[in-house]
Predict the 3D structure of the following.
Amino acid sequence: QVQLVESGGGLVQAGGSLRLSCVASGRTSSDYGMGWFRQARGREREFVAAISWSGGSTYYAGSVKGRFTVSRDNAKSTVYLQMNSLKPEDTAVYYCASEGTVHRVIAVTAAGFYAYWGQGTQVTVSS
């Protein structure tokens, strides 16, 4: 079965940086688009960033655009989320997800496109 394992979360001061990683196993992950979502306590899950299977298409939520960068290393079956200039409002559990459709050309933002989800990693930004 497909497994996604996130890592890299932690506690950081406002203005700092973190890099999240998501390692995929169980199928050829390089054939599928990947996304990052987050859920803060008491709030609904929201889209953060996505990258197509080839890496040629990326998309970001407005709240993170210019601060976060999504990338992938298909040889390592790993997707990354580089987070810079972190703000307290970025505090949340971050989840990576893998699409259910192979070789989609564009990155997609809706959670319904994603078939598999990781367990999440906590990111806490202190003020």
